[in-house]
Amino acid sequence: MRQAKFSVKETQADFLNNFEAYGFKDKSSMVRTAIDHFKTKLELENLKKSAELYSEIYSENDDLKELTETAVTGWPE
After folding, report:
1. How far apart, in whole angstroms, are the C-alpha atoms of residue 74 and residue 48?
2. How much is the pTM?
């Protein structure tokens, strides 16, 4: 596993020092979990923005709506 050196505020260091209270085996596993959680959150936000953009484009484009209707014609309800 790669190592990284970074600085944290004193309150953050105090929080990390309580890793066992949160069920982690060490500070590193706590930080890795936090990074993974934050990464997932950012990816979800990007996915939501993309979906909103596609929805906006679809709602403003009658040709696209017609194309979609043509594609689903004959599909079971």
Report:
1. 30
2. 0.73
